[in-house]
Amino acid sequence: MTTFWSVPCEWPGETVFIIAGGPSVRNIDLEQLRGHKIIAINSSIHAVPWADILYFGDWRWWNEPENAAAVAAFPGRSVTVSQTIESEKLLICRKGNPPGLSMARDTLTQKWTSLTAATNLAAHLVGPGGTIIWLGADGKAAADGTIWHHKPHRWGPKPSRYELHRADIATMGEPLRRMGIVLLNASQGSAYADLWPVVSLQDVLGARAAA
């Protein structure tokens, strides 16, 4: 029987950066984020192995040998909603379905994209007054046609992936406002700019340093 992890509010009022898979991450010096709270989504862990938390939602990602090796070597916590994997390294949460985000601390909302679950995880961790900052939440391919900043997944993308992702992501705004959490999108060129205005990462880091 699966024991589900209840996510504590252990970073109350703090700022957490979520590193998603979009190609805009290639233009960021991720070293400047050391010392900040970081959640890496699946293969982004190869770019920030010093992150605090790794989140992945797809069992196929775990089944790639290089990814399983990265998890084994990862000193932080690894979180998933997949119940098909058995490993002492994993903290498993219940999987909720969109729309919105789950208020239950043992549940993360995910259907078409891990970004919703990672955002839900961050919301549980920071609570009211907290800030979540997205990087790599592009919602589209780069000009050169690349989809990710990391090595492509072997199973390939769904043709309608961006439409499916957007439909789920668009439902998170109101729950975050009710929770008293600010979401900032620092993914330059993001297709989600109409949902959350795109901000400069340098401005965000400068504001944090001055606070």
Kindly describe this structure.
The chain is α/β, with parallel strands linked by helices. It has a single domain (15-210), classed as sialyltransferase cstii, chain A (Alpha-Beta Complex). The protein has helices spanning 59-62, 65-73, 114-126, 161-169, 173-179, 201-210; strands spanning 15-19, 37-41, 53-56, 77-80, 90-92, 94-96, 107-109, 131-135, 182-185. A seven-stranded parallel beta sheet has the order 5-4-3-2-1-8-9. A two-stranded parallel sheet has the order 6-7. The chain is globular. The model has no long low-confidence stretch (mean pLDDT 92).
Largest sheet: 7 strands, parallel
- Tell me roughly what share of residues is in helical segments: 10-25%
Poorly predicted runs are none
Mean pLDDT: 92
Tell me the β content: 15-25%
Number of domains: 1
The H-and-E topology, N to C, reads as EEEHHEEEEHEHHEH
How many strand elements? 9
Which CATH first-tier class would you pick? Alpha Beta
Assign the structural class, choosing from mainly alpha, mainly beta, alpha/beta, alpha+beta, or little secondary structure.
Answer: alpha/beta
CATH topology label: sialyltransferase cstii, chain A
